[in-house]
Amino acid sequence: MNLEIKKEAEYCLHCKNKPCSNIGCPLNINIPEFIEKIKEENYKGAADILYQTTVLPAICGRVCPHYKQCMGPCVRGIKGNPVNIGKLETFAGDWALENNYQIKKENIEKQKRIAIIGGGPAGLTAAAFLAMKGHNVTIYEKYDNLGGLLIYGIPDFRLPKEVVQNQINLILNLGIDVKYNMQLGKNLYINDLEREYDNVILAFGANNSAKMNIDGEDLEGVFGGNELLEYNLHPDYKGKVVVVNGGGNVAMDTARIVKNLGAEKVIVTYRRSRDEMPAESKEIESAMNEGVEFLFQNNIVKIIGEKNVEKVELIKTKLIKKEGETRPSPVNIENSNYTIDADYVVMAIGSVPANEAKELGLECTKYGYIKVDEKGMTSNPKIYAIGDLANNKSTIAWAARSGRNVAKEINNEVT
Ligand SMILES: Cc1cc2nc3c(=O)[nH]c(=O)nc-3n(C[C@H](O)[C@H](O)[C@H](O)COP(=O)(O)OP(=O)(O)OC[C@H]3O[C@@H](n4cnc5c(N)ncnc54)[C@H](O)[C@@H]3O)c2cc1C
């Protein structure tokens, strides 16, 4: 028995109304119940409860924004520290990976043929929940490995690749077929899939860095954070000053990676204050501890240089809370502009889907996300879209939730 884990499990009050699960967790995992099983040292029981609602416990346990999700409304947190739900989920999730746990599959053949495009957390979750119900699922993935941003986005120091691979293997044990090196729009076409399958689920993410559309954004030395990580485009940072613009996970991960790769100075610029940063507090602290500097309430207005980046012009902001807004809006303070020297700029202010999304003939939002209804259905009733591609809040748990919901929707059509 792991005493530390037992103690943490015993700290849970096992609340009847389960705010952690009902308000906090996008997947509505039955948190008090799986913790209860850990208390009883019934780890298989804990895994059984987790796998009713998620197929990614070893991953979500490590990298979900717990304070913004399950741990936020934890009753223990009112007067002290909330229960460390992430740690307990990681424990039970790892136990399943290390003990040859198999996800329960219903012994019925429903024989619906489903194609899923993209094997990130959304696609994997949809595949698993469909396979559990006896459907024939094929994932088409552009790379020769699954996982999406779990592999080429989130760095190893936060989410070890081995854990991701083991979690994927456990999912694939359900009997899911995977076709690797198949890229929609290149060697894979939606019309063919529509003919061949009963339903198509689009799950190819949204990993193109959004642009600010400011002067100098096309200079050499300006990178999109998402592309920098996905394609490993890093230049030699030794002795260089790198400005990373943004306040979320991509900004924090990029800043830490760039610092670890030897940059002399890494400065994160964010237009609101630390309190409004979308990144988890522990990630911000880790970045600070590793020497990353922060300029809060500063907005980039211009990138300056002949051919390469030489300077960045910033403007200071004040925060104004308007009626009906959940967080204050940054407003530029007139004449507060100043410049700092820089060699590289990384834009990490959000991401949008690749162009192939718009080329599918489906209705899209003005930012290029695929439009879906409350069931996850696109403007073509045979085609669903899930995860970041359908603008599902850019977290793993929300991507997984949309995958699970669409799987249920498709399954209900045949029951
Ligand atoms: C640096 C970084 C750090 C992050 N940190 C966190 C975190 O700590 N916590 C958290 O909850 N979320 C985090 N996120 C967000 C999270 O990773 C995403 O919300 C989640 O991965 C979205 O899942 P998805 O399945 O929709 O898309 P993706 O993970 O992007 O997966 C899409 C899949 O589709 C494949 N694909 C793409 N194009 C095609 C094509 N044309 N044809 C076939 N296949 C294709 C891709 O290779 C990939 O496998 C982070 C994101 C980044 C970039």
CATH architecture of the largest domain: 3-Layer(bba) Sandwich
Terminal Cα span:
43 Å
- Strand neighbour order, sheet with most strands: 3-2-1-4-16
| Broad CATH class of the largest domain | Alpha Beta
User: What kind of assembly state do the chains in view correspond to?
Assistant: single chain
Fraction of helical residues: 25-40%
Mean pLDDT across all amino acids: 96
Number of strands: 16
CATH topology of the largest domain: FAD/NAD(P)-binding domain
Q: What is the CATH homology-level superfamily of the largest domain?
A: FAD/NAD(P)-binding domain
What would you say this structure looks like, in words?
With 415 residues, this protein is of the alpha/beta class. It folds into 3 domains: 3-98, Fumarate Reductase Iron-sulfur Protein, Chain B, domain 2 (Orthogonal Bundle), CATH 1.10.1060; 113-206 and 353-412, FAD/NAD(P)-binding domain, CATH 3.50.50; 209-351, FAD/NAD(P)-binding domain. Helices cover 33% and strands 17% of the residues. The chain is built from 15 helices and 16 strands. It has helices spanning 3-10, 19-24, 31-39, 43-53, 57-63, 76-79, 85-98, 121-132, 149-152, 161-172, 190-196, 225-230, 249-260, 281-289, 396-412; strands at residues 113-117, 136-140, 177-179, 199-202, 208-209, 222-224, 241-245, 265-270, 293-296, 298-304, 311-320, 329-332, 338-341, 344-347, 351-352, 383-385. The strands form 4 sheets. A 5-stranded parallel β-sheet has the order 3-2-1-4-16, sandwiched between helices. Helix 8 links the parallel strand 1 (113-117) and strand 2 (136-140). Helix 1 crosses helix 3 (31-39) and helix 3 (31-39) packs across helix 7. It is globular and about 65 Å long. The model has no long low-confidence stretch (mean pLDDT 96). The structure holds flavin-adenine dinucleotide (FAD). Residues 63-65, 117-123, 140-143, 148-149, 153-154, 183-185, 203-205, 207, 226, 229, 249-250, 253, 356, 387-389, 394-397, 399 line the site of flavin-adenine dinucleotide. Flavin-adenine dinucleotide binds at residues 63-65, 117-123, 140-143, 148-149, 153-154, 183-185, 203-205, 207, 226, 229, 249-250, 253, 356, 387-389, 394-397, 399.
